[in-house]
């Protein structure tokens, strides 16, 4: 049947990946650029995140404009949370769902596949941006969600176990047996 350790490790990695996705989604440093003019007073750093674009000036002033058009990371987080919920019901170490071990492992596999889909959404969203610190956190979260989802998906048995029958053995003819 499914290995409990593999399921627990996959769930834990996916949970850490979800935290990374949430942190990466919230941070505004998805794309960074800086402009330093002839004078130190004109130094400007630009940050572009999923939700806002900010200009940080060397004087300490920060101006931001909000962008609420990036829904793919939110879809990724929602799908990942749903995948964690499904995987939790199918894990061998929980009492949720069915008592049938094959059915539980298939539920865990379905949760792993849902986690893989959520991670794929995040990877697509991360790949559109240039490098910033938030993108690395989101990539790490996506990688952990892929790893955890793959572990949960791999924890399902390949097929129905074959029944164990006693092996038939032949005995050599014996002269000590009496036939009636």
Number of strands: 4
Largest sheet: 4 strands, antiparallel
* Secondary structure: helix percent: 40-55%
Series of secondary-structure elements, N-terminal to C-terminal: HEEEEHHH
The CATH architecture of one domain is Up-down Bundle
CATH topology of one domain, what is it called?
A: Butyryl-CoA Dehydrogenase, subunit A, domain 3
Overall average pLDDT:
77
Cα separation of the termini: 49 Å
Total count of helical runs of at least 4 residues: 4
Q: What is the topology, as strand order, of the major beta sheet?
A: 1-2-3-4
- Low-confidence runs of at least 5 consecutive residues: none
Strand content: 5-15%
CATH level 1 name of one domain = Mainly Alpha
**Structural category:** alpha+beta
Shape: rod-shaped
Radius of gyration: 27 Å
Keywords: Cell junction, Cell membrane, Membrane, Tight junction, Transmembrane, Transmembrane helix
Main location: other
GO molecular function: structural molecule activity
Membrane topology: Multi-pass membrane protein
Walkthrough of the structure:
This protein has helices at 4-26, 72-90, 101-127, 133-154, and strands spanning 31-35, 44-48, 52-57, 62-66. It is rod-shaped, with a radius of gyration of 27 Å. Helix 2 (72-90) runs antiparallel to helix 3 (101-127). The chain has a domain at 4-28 and 70-154: Butyryl-CoA Dehydrogenase, subunit A, domain 3. It is an alpha+beta fold. The protein is built from four helices and four strands, in the order αββββααα. The longest helix has 27 residues, at 101-127. Helix content is 51%, strand content 12%. It has a four-stranded antiparallel β-sheet with strand order 1-2-3-4, covered by helices on one side. Keywords: Cell junction, Cell membrane, Membrane, Tight junction, Transmembrane, Transmembrane helix. The chain crosses the membrane at residues 6-27, 39-59, 71-95, 107-125, 131-154. InterPro entries: Claudin, Claudin_CS, PMP22/EMP/MP20/Claudin.
